């Protein structure tokens, strides 16, 4: 049964009244029930692009924050790539002091509204939560991300945010390539250091993967725009429609345009394909293209957007990560009658967040486990009309620790689909490597950097985020942006 926000709020208010004057022991706190995230009902949300998770109420966030034991050794911080003082911001949230709560977060992270929505807290901060360990269930950990989201949204909506202070001008200029999470963090810290910072964005909208990759129903674009406006308020310049590597090379930025250092955060935007027969037929999309058409180009706004909408009825999505979930759930919202995730392993090995998988199931997405595509077929006009799949079984664990899928000979079978979305990951953007002498990359095309400083093999050029890590989380990318900015601030002082 789908509980409404009003019902969940009433339950939280009753709990607040119950605990109002009680001095809570750790045992008491651990017994407080986990607060359910209010969401749009599945049958309603599948027909719109609005955010699925509506957000905690004020009563809910205070009750959830009261579940925190305020451990002296603060184990949760060990799981945070940017080392936010989690118990401190939660304690302020429990008091109802949301403005101070978000200020504590912003000492370490510039993007709490975003990270609170899209970061996999269950494999980061919440993995180490003592409450989860007391219950022997990670899903019972304190909902750190949901509390972070609430206080950040509250501060934004009530205009309680403060523009970060900027240092005295140093006379140094820094170019930041890309406007995704790593670049945003680096730009903020470099600007705090007093340097002139210019960000270069290849697309017509800034925000990187936050804008083109993550759907509106998971991350509203007005939030990304707001965070970028905060950078502009700090004095950062953002130049759009500027493709570094083509419009200008890295060497041009440093030798001709007067930049003293460069941070590259251009992401992992090169989609991987499976190299099977039929991948060039009409109706086969990379998840990148499919999501970009919807998220950035607003293909779903029929009659308002210029981007044409592909007419899909039966969609197969290859992959099992968050991007596959995003693509499948987007396809449902774009009108497909049937959407199936085709995954080579079982649900246990699926890398997507539990919450995203649960939401996809609620919205009618089907899952076909232990199947792998062999070839895609098409009609006489070259349009997809089917996929041949083979059944798999799980063998021994591979290098990632997951059990390897083994194809079962003779189990091939044809399935009717008119659209295929390939969501098996991305490689690093190859353009800057191809146009920059002296930059070294590994066999996957990721930039090789000093682990302590994020400096590349080219002096004065630093890199972070997906261009270094491959496809990573928003908070991991931000952590690298901050690490690089610290090293760049030190480097710029020596010039």
TrEMBL record:
Annotated InterPro entries: DPD_II, FAD/NAD-bd_sf, FAD/NAD-binding_dom, Helical_ferredxn, SudA-like
Q: Which Gene3D superfamilies match?
A: Alpha-helical ferredoxin, FAD/NAD(P)-binding domain
What is the main EC category here?
oxidoreductase
GO MF assignments: glutamate synthase (NADPH) activity; iron-sulfur cluster binding
Q: Tell me the ranges covered by the Dihydroprymidine dehydrogenase domain, including all copies.
A: 46-159
Q: Where is the FAD/NAD(P)-binding domain?
A: 173-481
Signal peptide position in this chain? none
Q: What is this protein called?
A: Glutamate synthase [NADPH] small chain
Natural source organism: bioreactor metagenome
């Amino acid at each position: 049964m789908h509980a409404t926000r009003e019902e969940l709020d009433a339950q939280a208010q009753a709990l607040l009244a119950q605990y109002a004057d009680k001095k809570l022991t750790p045992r008491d706190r651990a017994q407080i029930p986990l607060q359910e995230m209010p969401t749009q009902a599945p049958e309603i949300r599948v027909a719109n692009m609005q955010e699925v998770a509506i957000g905690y109420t004020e009563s809910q966030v205070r009750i959830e924050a009261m579940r925190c034991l305020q451990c002296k050794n603060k184990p949760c911080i060990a799981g945070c790539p940017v080392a936010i003082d989690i118990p401190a911001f939660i304690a302020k949230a429990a008091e109802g002091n949301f403005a101070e709560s978000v200020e504590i977060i912003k000492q370490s992270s510039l993007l709490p509204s975003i990270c609170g929505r899209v970061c996999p807290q269950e494999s980061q901060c919440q993995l180490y939560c003592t409450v989860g360990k007391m219950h022997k269930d990670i899903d019972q950990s304190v909902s750190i991300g949901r509390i972070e989201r609430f206080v950040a949204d509250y501060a934004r909506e009530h205009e309680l945010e403060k523009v970060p202070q900027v240092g005295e001008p140093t006379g140094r200029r820094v170019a930041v390539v890309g406007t995704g999470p790593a670049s945003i963090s680096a730009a903020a810290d470099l600007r705090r250091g007093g340097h002139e910072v210019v960000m270069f964005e290849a697309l017509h909208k800034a925000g990187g993967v936050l804008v083109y990759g993550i759907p509106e129903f998971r991350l509203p674009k007005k939030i990304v725009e707001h965070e970028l406006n905060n950078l502009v308020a700090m004095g950062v310049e953002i130049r759009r429609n500027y493709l570094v590597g083509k419009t200008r090379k890295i060497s041009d930025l440093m030798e001709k345009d007067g930049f003293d250092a460069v941070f590259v955060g251009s992401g992992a935007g090169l989609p991987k394909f499976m190299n099977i027969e039929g991948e060039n037929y009409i109706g086969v999309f990379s998840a990148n293209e499919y999501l970009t058409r919807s998220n950035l180009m607003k293909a779903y706004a029929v009659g308002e957007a210029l981007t044409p909408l592909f007419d899909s009825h039966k969609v197969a999505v290859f992959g099992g990560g968050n991007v596959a979930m995003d693509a499948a759930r987007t396809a449902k919202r774009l009108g497909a009658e049937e959407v199936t995730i085709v995954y080579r392993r079982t649900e246990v090995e699926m890398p997507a967040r539990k919450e995203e998988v649960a939401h996809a199931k609620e919205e009618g997405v089907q899952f076909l486990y232990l199947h792998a595509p062999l070839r895609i077929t098409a009609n006489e006009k070259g349009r997809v009309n089917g996929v041949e799949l083979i059944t798999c079984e799980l063998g021994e664990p591979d290098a990632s620790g997951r059990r390897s899928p083994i194809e079962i000979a003779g189990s091939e079978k044809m399935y009717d689909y008119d659209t295929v979305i390939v969501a098996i990951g991305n490689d690093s953007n190859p353009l800057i490597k191809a146009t920059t002498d002296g930059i070294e990359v590994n066999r996957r095309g990721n930039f090789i950097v000093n682990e302590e400083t994020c400096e590349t093999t080219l002096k004065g050029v630093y890199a972070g985020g997906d261009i270094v890590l491959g496809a990573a989380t928003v908070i991991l990318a931000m952590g690298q942006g901050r690490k690089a900015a610290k090293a760049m601030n030190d480097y710029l002082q020596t010039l």
